[in-house]
Amino acid sequence: MIVPKPVRHESRPGSFVLDSRATLNADPALAEVAAWLRGELAPVTGGELLPGSGTITLTLGDLPPEAYRLTVGPRVEVVAGGPAGAFYGAQTFRQLLPPAAFRRAATGPFTVPGTYVEDEPRFRWRGCLLDVARHFMTKHDVLRFIDLLALHKLNVLHLHLTDDQGWRIEIKRYPRLTEVGAWRRESQTGWNGAMDGRPHGGYYTQEDIREIVAYAAQRHVTVVPEIDLPGHTQAAIAAYPELGNLGTPLEVRTTWGVGVNVLNVEDATIEFFQNVLDEVLELFPSPYIVLGGDECRKDQWRASPAAQRRMAELGLGAEEELQSWLIHRFDDYLTERGRRLVGWDEILEGGLAPGAVVASWRGELGAVAAARHGHDVINCSNTSLYLDYRQGPGEEEPVPFGTVLTLEDVYAFEPVPEELRGDPAAARVLGAQCGIWTELIDSSRHLDYMAFPRLAAFAETVWGPAERDLAGFRDRLAAHLPRLEAIGVEYRRADGPLPWQRRPGVPGRPEDRERWQAKLDAWTSNLRTL
Ligand code: ACM
């Protein structure tokens, strides 16, 4: 009962006993995987799992890099195409142990029944966005979350580091970004504009970032940073007002929604963000860098003589083209440095730089348009993969936001949009990514509730075949939830929140939901013309 479901999984005669006499032999190329597995099994094995006769072996074979074969009998053998495959084989082995083995205080011995597994992923981008801008999550919480992604064989953590409500990464050249931009007075708690009156903040030092990136790399997770621009930048403008259009001081934003305060388009502002990117590129080896591009309101550019002058100089007829011009400049900057720009699907509006990757979020129309225009695509559809959306219709959901997105809805998701099936452009779909936006998620415990078990369903959709088997998934999940329980994950029960998981939310009024639906419809209608 492995989650995500392996390609092939069979019983074999015999069994393996994991106890303090177990030994581990690994190919030198797999030393890091071996070190990780030693750590995970330490409570059972007494912390040693020394090299020896090799009751557990990790070796390389002629397979794709993320593929593995796992055989459990009197011995455990993982044969993998590369370190990632060996890591996934080792993760599968852990799931064959009883759930109690996931407890930090586990003590063996544990018996594993004879098993043969053949496995490899369907998609190479199996991602999760974590918004640490709206609510800061401590480094410890981020590392724990990386372990949970890796348990589900996800391999991308998209860290949404900057937004109107917070700037979370130390930039040495511009210290006010975190001195000012990482803190806010209070936060909006729900639909109706109620405020909590509670100061909030925090940021990662560059040392913290290095630690997060290295920790993730050992677990075969690439951390992809997002510096959102030119919209969603009020925290940066609060720190450095010269980046904005008004010339008057602003505070770090306390409410959410799509704000009017956006970057100006002066050369000095472009240079400022290029300098920011120089430090970001130094910290994140990821080939992909996300520069947002979403939800940039053009009100201030329309009203700004400087922005209008810039448009005239460039011969641009519309503010959308100004945004496109700006994104092209940053795309050139990243391309010259050997990285690829990823942007939300708004970057399609007004023309898109050739190497850019589109993160399609407003439904799937952006994914279809981008793939047909020859761009690589990550399917991040908000109608299937936004895990901040409420999980049931009841008003006791904490906090009822968005439209209802159940576990079953997520499991039904297919990364290749229907319109692309049978079309060679489908090869442009690198994979998919769920999103955990945290306007209303202010703790790791609440994050657990929103992410699990929907994230397990998502993992099946990006790892396994296109066919869905809901009854089979339910059985696997029944075996999986005790593992999450043993790790201490406060997941949502099928019948809703436990008493202490309820939060005094702001009820989703019917008129708010209608407004929400109208907004979704309006967004997707402008995508239809691309
Ligand atoms: C987004 O949800 N604004 C990408």
Description:
It is a single chain. It is built from 16 helices and 18 strands. It is an alpha/beta fold and 530 residues long. It has an eight-stranded parallel barrel with strand order 7-8-13-14-15-16-17-18, surrounded by six helices. The protein has a six-stranded mixed beta sheet with strand order 1-6-4-5-3-2, with helices on one face. A hairpin with a 3-residue loop joins strand 4 and strand 5. Helix 1 runs parallel beside helix 2 and helix 3 runs parallel beside helix 5. The longest helix is centred in the middle third of the chain and has 18 residues. The mean pLDDT is 93. The structure holds acetamide. The site of acetamide has 4 residues, from loops. The site of acetamide (ACM) has 4 residues, from loops.
